[in-house]
Amino acid sequence: MPVIAVIGAQWGDEGKGKIIDLLAEKVNMVVRFSGGNNAGHTVVNPYGEFRMHLVPSGIFHRQVTCIVGNGVVIDPAALLEEIEQLEKRGVKVDKLYISDRAHLIMPYHILLDGLEEESRGSGALGTTRKGIGPCYMDKAGRLGIRSGDLLEKESFLDRLRLVLENKNRIITRVYEAQPLSLEEIYDKYCQYGERLAPFIRETDVMVQEAVERGETVLLEGAQGTMLDIDFGTYPYVTSTSASVGGACSGLGLSPVKIDHVIGVFKAYTTRVGSGPLPTELFDETGDLIRERAREYGTTTGRPRRCGWFDAVMGRFAARVNGLSGACLTRLDVLDVLPSLKVCTAYRLGGKTITSPPSNSSLLARCEPIYEELPGWQGDIDGLRRFEDLPAAARSYVRRLEELIACPMKLISVGPRREQKIVVEEIVN
Ligand code: IMP
Question: Whose Cα sits closest to atom 1 in ligand 1?
Answer without folding.
Answer: 127
